[in-house]
Model the fold of this input.
Amino acid sequence: MSLLPSALAGAGLLGGFATARATKNRPLGGAVLAVAGTGAFLAWKANAGTPKAAALTALYLAAFGASHPLAKKIGAWPAVNTVSAGVVLASLAVGRKR
Done:
């Protein structure tokens, strides 16, 4: 089992937020999110096939979206950490051939 797609997904969510916050440049954070998400998709596709890769990519994007309202309730970093952990765990569970 390759841990690469899980690491890319986690790094994309965490790194995208950290980049946007540190640089005050949201598009740059979005670029980090997009590049890591593309890499994760390609690795998921190679490891588990296109349908699972598409589902995990949809989860990745949904987690990004969900982090925003969640941040209003629990804070920015806790929200990003929570959704990142969820995506990484889902990737580890689903993102490999059986």
About this structure: The first helix runs from residue 4 to 23. Residues 66 and 83 are 8 Å apart (CA to CA). The mean pLDDT is 95. Residues 4-94 form one domain.
